[in-house]
Amino acid sequence: MPTSLLPASVVPPPHEPALLAQYRHVRAATEALVADLSDADATVQSMDDASPAKWHLAHTTWFFEEFVLAARVPDYEPVDAQYRYLFNSYYEAVGARHPRPRRGMLTRPTLDEVLAYREAVDDAMQELLQAAQTDEEAALIELGLHHEQQHQELLLTDILHLFAQNPLKPAYAPEPIAPVIAEPRAEPEWLRFEGGLVEIGHDGEGFAFDCEGPRHRVFLAPFQLRSHPVSNREWFEFIEDGGYGSAGLWLSDGWRWVCDNGIEAPQYWEAREGTWWQMTLRGMQPVDPESPVTHISFFEADAFARWAGCRLPTEAEWEHAAARLPATGNFVEGGALRPLPDRQNTAGALRQMFGDVWEWTGSAYLPYPGFRPSAGAVGEYNGKFMSSQMVLRGGSCVTPESHIRATYRNFFYPHQRWQFTGVRLADEA
Ligand SMILES: [Fe+2]
Predict the structure, then answer these.
(1) Are strands 358-364 and 421-422 parallel, antiparallel or unpaired?
(2) CATH numeric code, 18-164
(3) Cα–ligand 1 centroid distance for 294 (angstroms)
(4) CATH number among 1.10.287.110, 3.20.20.370, 3.90.1580.10, 3.40.50.11260, domain 190-428
(5) What is the per-residue pLDDT across 60-74, written as a single tens digit (0 to 9) for each?
(6) Cα 87 to averaged position of ligand 1 atoms, centre (Å)
(7) CA angle, corner 29, sides to 25 and 34, nearest 5?
(8) Which sequence spans correspond to the domains of the chain?
(9) Residue 292 DSSP label
C-alpha cells in the first residue's frame, strides 16, 4: 500500500550500480501499490480508457522484456511468447495486440502468474544491470522506469474509477487521512509575471521524455497567475451560480458534452442531504472546501475560467512561472492519495504548483519547434499522440515525486477527468 512505498530518493548500497538501485526501487514501488488488491480487483476493467491493475503490472514488465532483454540478451527466451500480444499497448512496430477495451477479459494469466512474470523479468534485468551499460542502453532502461512510474499513477486512477462503480464504494486505502494542520491558508491572490522573450523546454540535463524538448524561445506578454489552484469552495460558487447550466460559458464541444452526459459536478461528486461527498481512494469523503477541486475535464476548467472572467494559463506561462520552484508537494509518497489544502500561509508566492492536481492549460499538445521523436519503436511513445489533446502540468497527489519536473508535459483529451485534474487561473497583467 502507499503508506509502505519506498522513499522518493534512491541511495544505492555500496558497489551497486545506480541504475540497478533505481530499477529495484521503481519495480518494488509498483508492487507495493497492489499489495492489498484481490485478483478480481486487479482484473476488472471499468471503462475503455482504464486498464486493469494486472494489465499495468504486466505491460510495464513487457516493456523491459520487449525493448531491453529481447534486444540485448543473446538467444533470450520470452517468459511466455503470448504476452507480447496481450501486453503490447499501442506499438505498431511490435505488431498486433489485444484490443484495449477488452483488457478486462484477461482472467488468465492470474495475478499470481503476472507477479511471477515480473519476478522472472526482474531476475534477467538485474543480471543485465550488474554490467556496464552504454549511454543508449541506459537511456532506454531509464525510459522504461519513467514509463513504469506513469503506469503507477494510472494504476491508482484506474482503481479509483473501478471502485467508484461499486455501490459499496470500497476504500483502496482505508486509513484516515492525517489531520490537516489547522493554520489558515493564505488567501488566493494574483501574482504578476513580466514575461518577455523566455526559454521553455528541457535542456537535456538528466531524464526527460522526447516531447519536452527541444528547449526553445517563446515570447510571453505580461501575465498573472493565481497563487493557488481553484478550490472546491470556489467550485461550489460556480455550481450555485448555475455554471453547469449556462451555455454561454462553454465551448461548443464542451456544452454538447455537458448536455449529452448530464454533467452537473466534478466526477465522483455526489449530493447527500445538501452536502457534497466524493469518491476517493479512501472511500466516500465529504468534499473539503479548502482543497483543490479535482476530476474536472478541460471543458469544465475552461468554462470555470470564463465564469471567473479570466482564462487558463498557456503551458509556456505555467512553465516559465514554475521553472525556479522546487518540485515538491503532495505526491504519492505522502500517502494522502487526494489533493490537500495548502499547508503554509505564505503570501506572495505560487503555491501547490507541483503535486495535488494536474493543472489544465489552454495549450494543445503539439510538437515544440524542431521536435524529433526518439529513434526506434519507442519513437511511438509520445509523438503520435499530438492531436486533439490538451497539456496538463505539475503532477498530482498520485504522481511519484521523482517523476515530475517543470518541463513535464502530460496530455489528455478535453472530456477526460478520471485523472487527478484541476485548474489554476491566469489573466493578462
Ligand atoms: Fe505504457
Answers:
(1) parallel
(2) 1.20.120
(3) 24
(4) 3.90.1580.10
(5) 999 999 999 999 999
(6) 9
(7) 155
(8) 18-164, 190-428
(9) B
CB atoms within 10 A of CB 317: 25
Ligand 1 center from residue 103 Cα (angstroms):
13
Q: State in Å: Cα 336 to ligand 1 middle.
A: 25
What's the CA-to-centroid distance between 315 and ligand 1, angstroms?
24
391 φ, ψ (degrees, to nearest 5)? -85, 140
What is the whole-number distance in angstroms between the Cα of residue 132 and the centre of ligand 1? 26
CA of 152 to the centre of ligand 1 (A): 10
Dist. CA 261 → ligand 1 center (Å): 29
Question: 59 C-alpha vs ligand 1 centroid, how far in Å?
Answer: 7
Residue recorded with cell 526501487: 25
Helices (H), 131-167: 135-164
| 147 Cα: distance to centroid of ligand 1 (angstroms) | 6
Contact 253, 414 (CB under 8 A): yes
pLDDT tens column, 347-397: 899 999 999 999 999 999 999 999 999 888 888 888 899 999 999 999 999
Residues with CB under 5 A from ligand 1 (ion): 89
**Bridge partners of 364?**
390
**What is the chain's alpha carbon radius of gyration, rounded to the nearest angstrom?**
22
- Whether the Cβ atoms of residue 328 and residue 355 lie closer than 8 Å to each other: yes
Q: What is the dihedral of CA 388, 392, 395, 398, to 10 degrees?
A: -50
Written as one letter, the residue type at 240 is E
Distance (Å, whole) CA 106 – CA 103: 6
